[in-house]
Amino acid sequence: MEGDFVMRALLVDPAAPAGLRLGSAPDPEPAPHQALVRVTATSLNYGEVASLVPGAAPGTVLGWDAAGHVERAAADGSGPAAGTPVVTLGEAGGWAELRAVDTQFMGVVPEGADLGAISTIPVAGASALRALHRVGPLLGRRVLITGATGGVGRYAVQLARRAGAYVVAATGDPGARGELLRGLGAHAVVGDPAEADGPLDGVVDLVGGRQLVAAYEKLGAGGVLVSVGHSGGDDEHFPHGVLYGDQGRHDRAVVSFYLLGCGGLGRDLAWLAGEVAAGRLDAGEAWRGSWGDAGVAVEALRGRRLHGKAVLEVG
């Protein structure tokens, strides 16, 4: 019944370790265009744990990513039937046993797939896919991925390579992480965008600040930089002359997008789930544990000690 506290969830609690504790929350009441999903696993994103948890009201249930099974199909007839395994995306609610989610933000998952690995897809996989779509056709193009060892970066490296691009991956420690990134498909690994051989046709930037500016300077004519992440925490300052256009720097662009504003995400999520389930995409899972151990993963992400995705198994 609406208002009953029967669902377990990770709740924001400023007094708890890492700002989260297991507790109870009211079952969500789906709108007609939403399905009710019983969550099996969720994955954490740096933006959630670093920015949202510290500022959220106590008792809030956050969580962008979740995978599970449809408990109750959407009343308007959209979306999959009850019992269907799905991967879901939303502004909140993923860190709970039950989630009400718009059917346009859910994708059907192959039967028998590891839902823990699938839960890494929504923000990381879909952001990488949409960013590369925005760059344009990739066959024969040169593309730089900054912050390449993070969740979005790992997906972007793999997808760009599969699309036929020459992939340059930038990471803070190329010596320690170069083998990993080459294994995912990178042709070259650099420690800073300024070290990349140009001109580049596209950049997927996950760091922002100084690295965004350095990556932009490597773009050739018609090149596109897609700004996705801001993990560097510093401002972008374009020195005088960087934005000049000439024969080699004609028609360059910096663009951004809001993932939940993109149409067709259900199709993207389903395709990505199929690729992960079939082993054709590495989910980038770096940590897995019970949601009772969420604090361990949160602190590791905040401290930049975890490169890749942290998966919480619900239950």
UniProtKB/TrEMBL annotation:
<dbReference type="InterPro" id="IPR013154">
    <property type="entry name" value="ADH-like_N"/>
</dbReference>
<dbReference type="InterPro" id="IPR052585">
    <property type="entry name" value="Lipid_raft_assoc_Zn_ADH"/>
</dbReference>
<dbReference type="GO" id="GO:0016491">
    <property type="term" value="F:oxidoreductase activity"/>
</dbReference>
<protein>
    <submittedName>
        <fullName>Putative Quinone oxidoreductase PIG3</fullName>
    </submittedName>
</protein>
<dbReference type="InterPro" id="IPR036291">
    <property type="entry name" value="NAD(P)-bd_dom_sf"/>
</dbReference>
<dbReference type="InterPro" id="IPR011032">
    <property type="entry name" value="GroES-like_sf"/>
</dbReference>
<dbReference type="Pfam" id="PF00107">
    <property type="entry name" value="ADH_zinc_N"/>
</dbReference>
<dbReference type="Pfam" id="PF08240">
    <property type="entry name" value="ADH_N"/>
</dbReference>
<dbReference type="InterPro" id="IPR013149">
    <property type="entry name" value="ADH-like_C"/>
</dbReference>
<feature type="domain" description="Enoyl reductase (ER)">
    <location>
        <begin position="15"/>
        <end position="312"/>
    </location>
</feature>
<dbReference type="InterPro" id="IPR020843">
    <property type="entry name" value="ER"/>
</dbReference>
